[in-house]
Amino acid sequence: MDFKKEIIKLLKKEIKGFDDKLLEVPPNPEMGDYALPCFTLSKIYKKDPKSIAKDLKNKIKPLSSIEKILNIGPYLNFFIDLKLKNKYILEKILKEKNKYGSHKKKKKKVMIEYSQANTHKAFHVGHLRGTSLGEALARILKFNGYQVIQSNYQGDTGAHVSKWLWYYKKYSNGTPPKGKEGQWLAKIYVNSVKKLKDKPELKEEVEKINYNLEHNKSKELKALWRRSRKWSLDELNRIYKELDAHFDHFFFEREMEKRGKEIVNQLLKDKIAKISDGATIVDLDKLGVWVLLRRDGTILYSAKDLALAEKKFNKFKIDNSVYVVGKAQALHFQQLFKVLHLMKFKQADNSFHLSFDEVRLPSGKMSSRTGVNILYSDLRDELLDYATNETKQRHPNWPAKKIKETAKGIAMTSLKFSMIFQDNNKPIIFDQKQAMAFEGDTGPYILYSHARACSILKKTKASTKANLALLDQPEETNLINMLGVFPEIVEKGAKEYKPFHIAKYAIELSHAFNNFYNTNKCITEDKELTKARTLLVKSTKQVLANTLNLLGLKALKEM
């Protein structure tokens, strides 16, 4: 029985046009399982919220599944029969297992575009946020029944590539050292920026390379571009494998150049775009000037994005396109969507920019141009060393392979969870010591909670049947309530495009479980109570595993 739906049916009988969203879960179990705030009903009934709650309490006849209905101030609170509630929630979890919390399949097809790490540049901690956020969102939408295409749009041409090629040709040579590919590629780019800053007169040489590369004027240059592009993509693919990030399709800027220029020509014919000081622009009034082509005719990523939008909808037949891109690009996407409207592109309203704020160091902002950042590869190695030493100290008798796998799981979880736990619209001050902590609001804390549940289940066999009415302690009731709201949290995360709701829930569930564990013995002399509590532990372990999977994290059985 879905208790929430049954309560909503009761309320709809008494309240015309009742909005299902009004029913909420109270912050404290002592206030019931569900509550209806009556503030918004004052306009309908022309009464104060307290009187409305009292009147509804007297009118509504509770079902057998509802133990009692109370009006507490301006709220109408519903208390579900403890035995029925425990039985429904725990049996549903154990029956559905890794499907618990999922929703029915939907016809809507959504493309999530994320990561967008450019070739010839470093993959740093800032990229982790977009990659972790996009991967989690894709998993959450799939869990909610959407058809999802995971895509990655990578800049393999343009000004940054030309700078890299220029510096490599003029001041560098050789191939990337094994195991240090990312650092080597990044250093060349940073050096090119510094050199151009010191000698701006060299900029013309870079512009010539950009022009020649775009117009295929040099076979030697094209060959170097292909070779260095492969070095970059091989390194990025290694990183994506480590991060457990999956893509169904890769788009590249180079592929968008031809169609992008065709669209620009059409915009000129339609008088949407115009030539200004030799460059091709669109004057968007309050949104400013959007430059499509430079004076030398080379294309900018603005025009390429028009071609990309067209390709997404026309080739993949999607209903919605979600761009998971940094907040710094907010104006660009406003301009992009505005031009799509001016082009009368039918799906312009079905495109959405899911922005995320910066990842900063305690010392300040990061930048791939200046090299003031934390390279992913450097941070990964540092966290792996730390996690390996910690695991060795705790488990000196474990084989090397097990230590290595466990340490990797802890390090990757600490990295990715720290990128998701904060609201995407707020900046992250990345503190690696805090991210690796086994206590507090961290990924390792959730892993620890899952491992603790596994440890308990090793000591006793979880029975398939138990008297779940015995689970009446406050810590037990709170934990079961937490398990019961998981499907709603998952749905909320999908509707709002906010994985941090699931991340926050994972922390709260871990707190509730550890509070239960520290207050109540799971294995007792009372066999029936042991059976009931073991089932509760098994259910919690399953939901924690489901939550971790949605966030792109792997549950550990030991740590």
Topology:
Layout: H1 3-14, E1 34-37, H2 42-45, H3 49-59, E2 66-72, E3 75-80, H4 82-96, E4 109-113, H5 125-143, E5 147-154, H6 159-171, H7 181-198, H8 203-214, H9 219-242, E6 249-252, H10 253-269, E7 274-276, E8 279-283, E9 289-293, H11 301-316, E10 320-326, H12 330-342, E11 351-356, E12 359-360, H13 376-394, H14 400-420, E13 428-429, H15 432-435, H16 443-459, H17 474-484, H18 486-495, H19 500-519, H20 527-550
Parallel strand pairs: 4-5, 4-10, 5-6, 10-11, 12-13
Antiparallel strand pairs: 1-3, 2-3, 7-8, 8-9
Helix pairs in contact: 4-17, 4-20, 5-14, 5-18, 6-7, 6-8, 10-11, 13-14, 16-19, 16-20, 17-19, 17-20, 18-19, 19-20
Number of extended strands: 13
- Biggest β-sheet: count, sense, barrel? 5 strands, parallel
Low-confidence spans: pLDDT under 50, at least 5 residues? none
- What spatial form do the alpha-carbon principal axes imply? globular
CATH class of the largest domain: Alpha Beta
Radius of gyration: 28 Å
Number of helices: 20
Strand order of the largest sheet: 6-5-4-10-11
Would you tell me the overall average pLDDT? 93
Number of domains: 3
